[in-house]
Each structure stands twice: as structure tokens, then as C-alpha cells.
Inverse folding.
């Protein structure tokens, strides 16, 4: 099937977005400059958003599922950090429809799994809904037919 093997979700997403760039939505950016902005926001997602959202979701959602205690002090510390990260997103989305600019891109797509957990499985959705532009963005990207179909298939 493949003549090579690789892992890491963002690398896989970039690979398929490149391989099928001529089909469907252009997820990478139409110009070199737009592609750089998309890459930048994919990195922001990995290094700032995900770095805080993942331990929040682990503590709030998964630890209780396995009977493990929540690290309340860590959760409170992470909420403060997450609030600051979301301010950056609110500012970006005040002047852009999507993170990469005027069109849905990989920058938006990479945020969707973590945002789904934050919005649907934690008590933190208010951090998003209280921000006009961030909330608009999430409502728009999560209403995409492909996302709705995936959520249906995954039984979420």
C-alpha cells in the first residue's frame, strides 16, 4: 500500500492534503504566503492550543472515566493558560473568517478534535462561547457536512 511508513496526525493530514490538493477543498493555502500562514497556525495548534487542551481533557474527562483523581491545581493553572491562548485566537478571528484567512484550511481542521472535547465533554465551553469570534468560528467549522458525518460515524 505505502512504500514508506510515517506517523503523527499533522504529518498525515499534510500528506493527504497535498496528495489530494486537486480534489475538494484546498486545505494548504493557494499561495506560498497563505501556505505559510496555514503552517503557522497548525504549529500554534500543536504547541499552544493542544499543549494546554490535552492535559485539561485528560484531567477533566479521561481520569474520572478510569477512576483516577483529577489534579485540581493543575486544571486551574491550565484554565488560566488556556484562557490566554484563546485570547490570541479571538484576536486572530476578529479580522479573519478562519485561522488561515478567508478559507477553511488545515489550520482549522487540526483544531477540530481538541475543540470537540473542550466544547462537548468538559465544563469549559464557556471559554469559547464567551468570545464572539472564536464562537462564530467554532460554530461554522463544526457545522461542516464532513465534520457532522464524522461525528455521526464516530457516534458522538
Amino acid at each position: 500500500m505505502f512504500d514508506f511508513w510515517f506517523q503523527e496526525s499533522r504529518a498525515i493530514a499534510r500528506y493527504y492534503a497535498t496528495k489530494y490538493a486537486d480534489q475538494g477543498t484546498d486545505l494548504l493555502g493557494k499561495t506560498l504566503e497563505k501556505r505559510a500562514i496555514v503552517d503557522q497556525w497548525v504549529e500554534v495548534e500543536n504547541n499552544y492550543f493542544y499543549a494546554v487542551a490535552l492535559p485539561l481533557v485528560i484531567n477533566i474527562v479521561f481520569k474520572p472515566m478510569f477512576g483516577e483523581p483529577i489534579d485540581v491545581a493543575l486544571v486551574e493553572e491550565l484554565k488560566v493558560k488556556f484562557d490566554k491562548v484563546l485570547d490570541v485566537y479571538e484576536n486572530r478571528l476578529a479580522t479573519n473568517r478562519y485561522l488561515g484567512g478567508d478559507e477553511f484550511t488545515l489550520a482549522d481542521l487540526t483544531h477540530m478534535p481538541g475543540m470537540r472535547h473542550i466544547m462537548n465533554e468538559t465544563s469549559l465551553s464557556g471559554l469559547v462561547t464567551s468570545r464572539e469570534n472564536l464562537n462564530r468560528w467554532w460554530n461554522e467549522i463544526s457545522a461542516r457536512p464532513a465534520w457532522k458525518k464524522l461525528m455521526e460515524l464516530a457516534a458522538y
